[in-house]
Amino acid sequence: MRKLSLVLLLLLISFATRSQSYSGYFHDNYAGVQSVLFNPASIADSRFKTDINLFSISGAVSNDLYGVKLFDVFKDGYDLDSQSKMTPSNANNAIINLDIMGPSFMFNIAPKHTLALFTRARSITNLRDVNGNLVDQVKDGLDQANSFDPINAGSPNGASHAWGELGISYAAVLFQKDQHFLKGGLTAKYLQGVGNAYIKGKNAIASLQENTNNPENSKLFTTGEMTIGGSQDWEANEDYEFDINSSGVGFDFGFVYEWRPDYEKYNLNKAKPADNNFRDLNKYKLRFGLSVTDIGSISYKKAKQDTYDIDGVITQNMIDNADNLYDFLNEHYTKTSTAKGVKANLPTALHADADWNIHNKFYLNLNGDISMVSNTKLNAVNIADRVSLTPRYESRWFSFYVPVTWMEYSGTQVGSGLRVGTFFVGSGSIVSNLISKESKAADFYVGLKIPVYQKKFKDRDQDGVIDKQDSCIKVAGPIENKGCPWPDTDNDTVFDKDDTCPDVAGPVENKGCPWKDTDADTLMDNVDACPTVFGPLENKGCPWPDTDGDTVLDKDDACPDTVGLVENKGCPVLDADKDGVADNVDDCPLIAGPAENKGCPLVNKETLAQLQVEAKSIFFTSGKATLSDAKKDETSGRLDAIKEILKNYPNAKFAIYGHTDNVGNAKANQKLSEERAKVVMDALIGKGVNPENLTSQGFGASKPVKSNKTAAGRAENRRTEIVYLGNL
């Protein structure tokens, strides 16, 4: 390409750097310290004890103007302009990106807290909105260009920035309950500026006036404005000057949520020591991450900015005679200069991803990146807007992934990556580059690290003491004895540490010593409630007590707390009915009666007369031994009255006699009298009279009280009587 092409590119075209680093790799759960670059929360609850990055590098270049068969580019004699396929538009773009990670490491400071320290060098170039049609017209120089109508180059904008980072990240588990798990992280970065340059056009228009007789005198008419600036005065000094004072600070922050439906499998309350609190396992089914990176800027205090009014005419001779860009611009255009500090922003971006554990070690990741920096801003660098879908196989020492990425301007590209132990390598576009003849993007990354993984501890004897702390790794034993079984010299199942008599067998209950009989009462001390006092077997080796001291032992004393007589079972003599007869000899302790009748009331004539009255008024069904239904209530009342009289004589014996008249068969009358007497007795017993106080007897017609010759006399003879027989 001739000098004119270079001038036009510097004046009017732009390149946009929108490529990310470590495509497909950084969402791996074993990405380690690299993952902190995209979401600082990712390192909390990681699969690493520590992860040390020795060196890693990621680079990318892409565009939407030139399509090439990538590996032909590296052949001798390859000409981009003639051998590539150009796709010009009013706003073409290209990318250049370099990211180097130096010695860095992460480590756990507590089960839920993690730190990372990293060093990093970065270079990003953003040049945008190139009018590819103009580039295509003048790529071989004015003398080879065909006449073209005025082309509006618009307002191309480009910036390039290189800097170093020293960062520290802190991440912690913020919330953990059942299936929900949330962690967050923050990164603070010290930024050291290396270099910054930018160019931006405004309302740029170019048109060619062709001289067919003398092509070298063809003229290019340009109008518009162009601003060029940088971290130092490049016009005054082409040599790079490092400025230690060009520095700044930056921040990243992020969150990660994990859905853990099988959380019971990882319950820390049920974890064995060998489980290492399940730190070696990925426990989520779905993981969601959200982060914002590269918040901040770097101040360049020696920066200079020149603004050129590019209204004028350019010929091929002017271009050929120019020694450098600044000489050409200063000779042909008017400029306005300023020398003041400038702040170069970081490529602030929003990142979101979702990671699905499909089954066992197979995962699918969906990642999106959105630039938060305006493309039209002066001296702005930014990342690409992109979406990636990455299936991967992941294990502790090996991972393989195939990212499929849609880029904002270079389209869809397919890559591949590999992690094997300490080494990882990959590309987000390698598959596309191998099969496409019009590749517009290429990237790569490679790294070397020292990973120290979390892992389940060994416990060969399964005694709950991990091998590295177990003094007897092949024999189970308690943790208190460093994993070794306790000795039992006398084989009595009581370990020597708990055995008061380690050389003599004895029961567990006596701390390994044989039982004694201290009080010689034939009961061993282990079952003797009073091992030092002689006592009978029946009272568990204790002497019987006599609480009230009345010589009647409590076991025989009906009143153990009150002094009483032996003959009254240790109780004092009482006279409840106050009849002068002690309750212990009173047959009727609740009813007053004379002593000669053992404290019971005497049955007197008045009582007997009343009984006879009541008994005579008990009616039966004619010719039957059943109570009359016609006079049921009266009969019941008479029976109740008799019951009330008899209960006052609990020690008296009464007889119920039944009588009939002489009408009919004598044997039938005898039987009827017996049955009626018994019916009355059973009725009284049914009402609560003690059966011991009653008997019944029938006399038939043998004992009439009136003459059977008259109806009135026979009625008197059909009767029941109650007779007092004496005391029980």
What does this structure look like?
The chain has 728 residues and is mainly β. It is 13% helix and 35% strand. It has helices spanning 3-12, 80-83, 132-138, 316-321, 325-332, 430-435, 605-616, 632-646, 666-686, 711-717, and strands at residues 48-63, 66-67, 85-86, 94-101, 104-110, 113-128, 151-154, 157-177, 180-209, 219-230, 247-259, 286-300, 304-309, 312-315, 334-338, 342-345, 349-359, 362-371, 386-394, 398-401, 404-407, 411-414, 416-420, 423-427, 441-453, 652-659, 694-698, 719-727. It has a 23-stranded antiparallel sheet that branches. The longest helix is centred in the last third of the chain and has 21 residues, at 666-686. The protein is elongated.
